[in-house]
Design a protein that fits this description.
single chain; 356 residues; alpha+beta; ten-stranded antiparallel beta sheet; 15% helix; seed storage protein; 11S_seedstore_pln
């Protein structure tokens, strides 16, 4: 069966005045199910509030746009209230309860990418709401709610009867929400647009890698991530994940071209990618991208907390490590052709600026 790696856009699942929740469907993007990966987006309008919930999947959240507040409760821990803004990456292990709130005029948009290997549905996140019409209060009988929370039956009926809202609501501007605390941010999130660069190549591109060193909590999530900013017309070296990890890529800004080569040297994907699209590179497949004139940014998760990549072009590539005799024998070409091949890309690595 041929793999369908075509990039896809998310589709709206639910929403209202407060905002909307979007997700990528494994029926339309089969690699989600194949790779046990979930992908979704939360978009909150001003005063939009995403009701408290927990998920059946560990995730990495990435703020694509705007600023707001995130409430996070780790198992058996106190609530942390984080100030969040564009560029923030947040690790969300199993069992975490979260809520999200936007008090600004600009729409707050958060991307979620995660592992669904233990989820109810492979390739999809399932959220369990604490409140709302589909929350736990509506499922239990009044007797159980009364006993569990030591409440009078009249109070229970009021609580259960008021749960008419679903998922995302719009709060009255006068509603007071917890103020975020900067000290709660440390260790819980990392801003990928402000963090020290792991790669910085003039006229080529920049990379910030999210791993257990700069955000230890990703070790509990079991995923690594990176933010790549590719300059206009620059190229990202062909490469592959050499530790059997999948690469799940969301285009944050700009557009460009991508090619993926798989088994038996077959080109399995050649297309134009643009902001908002998501695609997945299977294990050991080789991928390369070229940005359009305005450049291209993408956020990726890799299904291991400390990913390792092998690049096939540039100063640090495997080709540069192989001896000339092996290259000549492998290519089956005269020495002068092998020498021309080996003499190129001795200075650049990973990203290649546009040709003059």
């Amino acid at each position: 069966m041929e793999l369908d790696l075509t990039p896809k856009l998310a589709k709206k699942l639910y929403g209202g005045d407060g905002g909307a929740y979007y997700a990528w469907c494994p029926n339309e993007l089969p690699m989600l199910r194949e790779g046990n990966i979930g992908a979704a987006k939360l978009a909150l309008e001003k005063n939009g509030f995403a009701l408290p919930r927990y998920s059946d999947s560990a995730k990495v959240a990435y703020v694509l746009q705007g600023s707001g507040v995130a409430g996070i409760v780790l198992p058996e821990k106190e609530e942390k209230v984080l100030p969040i803004k564009k560029g923030d990456a947040i690790a969300l292990p199993f069992g975490v309860v979260t809520w999200w709130y936007n008090k600004e005029d600009t729409e707050l948009v958060v991307l979620f990418l995660g592992d669904t290997s233990k989820a109810h549905k492979s390739g999809s996140f399932t959220d369990f709401f604490l409140t709302g019409s589909n929350g736990i209060f509506t499922g239990f009988s009044t007797e159980f709610v009364s006993r569990a929370w030591d409440l009078e039956e009249s109070v229970v009926k009021t609580l259960v009867g008021s749960q008419s809202r679903t998922g995302i609501v719009k709060l009255d501007p006068s509603c007071k929400m917890p103020e975020p605390k900067k000290e709660h941010y440390n260790g819980m999130a990392l801003n990928c647009e402000e963090a020290p660069l792991d790669v910085d190549i003039k006229d080529g591109g920049k990379v910030v890698v999210l791993n257990t060193k700069n955000l230890p909590l990703v070790g509990e999530v079991g995923l690594g991530a990176d933010l790549v900013r590719l300059n206009g017309k620059a190229m990202c070296s062909p490469g592959f994940s050499c530790d059997s990890a999948l690469q799940v890529t969301y285009i944050v800004r700009g557009s460009g071209r991508v090619q993926v080569v798989g088994v038996d040297g077959k080109r399995v994907l050649e297309t134009t990618i643009k902001a908002g699209s998501l695609f997945i590179v299977p294990r050991f497949f080789v991928v390369s991208k070229i940005a359009d004139p305005d450049g291209m940014d993408w956020f990726s998760i890799i299904t291991t907390p400390n990913p390792v990549f092998t690049h096939l072009a540039g100063r640090t590539s495997v080709w540069k490590a192989l001896s000339p005799e092996v290259l000549q024998a492998a290519f089956g070409v005269p020495p002068d052709v092998e020498q021309k091949f080996s003499s190129k890309r001795k200075a650049e690595e990973i990203f290649f600026p546009p040709p003059n």
